[in-house]
C-alpha cells in the first residue's frame, strides 16, 4: 500500500469519527475557533458527554499528527486534497443523519 492510500484512508476514518463525536457532543467542529478550543481542553457548554469529548479531543490531535506526516511524505498539495476529501465525506454523512 502506498503512503497516499494509507494517509487518505486514515484521514477519511478520522473525519467520519469526528463527525459522529461532534454530533454526540453538540459541537460544530467547523465553527471558527472550535477545534483550537477543544484542543486546549475547553469543553463546550452544551456538551454533556465527557467520554465522547475526550475521544474527540484525542482524535483531533491524531488528525493534526496525520496531516503533518502526510505533508512530509506526500507533500502539501496531495495532503490538502486528502483533507478536502475527508471533510467532504464527513459533511455528507453528517447531512444524511441531521
Q: Helix and strand succession?
A: HHHH
Main β-sheet description: none
- State Rg: 14 Å
The mean pLDDT is 89
Spatial separation of the terminal alpha carbons: 35 Å
Q: Please report which band the strand proportion falls in: under 5%, 5-15%, 15-25%, 25-35%, 35-45% or over 45%.
A: under 5%
| Total count of strands | 0
Domain unit count: 1
Which ranges are low-confidence, i.e. pLDDT below 50, for 5 or more consecutive residues? none
What's the overall geometry? globular
- State the helicity in percent bands: over 70%
User: Tally the helices: what do you get?
Assistant: 4
Structural class by SSE content: mainly alpha
Keywords:
globular; 4 helices; 77% helix; 0% strand; mainly alpha; 98 residues
Amino acid at each position: 500500500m502506498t503512503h497516499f492510500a494509507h494517509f487518505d484512508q486514515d484521514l477519511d476514518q478520522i473525519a467520519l469519527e469526528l463527525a459522529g463525536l461532534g454530533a454526540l457532543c453538540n459541537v460544530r467542529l467547523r465553527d471558527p475557533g472550535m477545534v483550537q478550543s477543544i484542543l486546549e481542553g475547553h469543553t463546550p457548554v452544551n456538551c454533556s458527554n465527557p467520554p465522547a469529548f475526550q475521544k474527540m479531543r484525542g482524535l483531533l490531535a491524531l488528525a493534526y499528527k496525520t496531516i503533518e506526516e502526510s505533508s512530509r511524505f506526500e507533500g502539501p498539495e496531495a495532503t490538502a486534497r486528502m483533507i478536502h476529501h475527508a471533510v467532504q465525506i464527513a459533511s455528507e454523512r453528517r447531512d444524511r443523519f441531521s
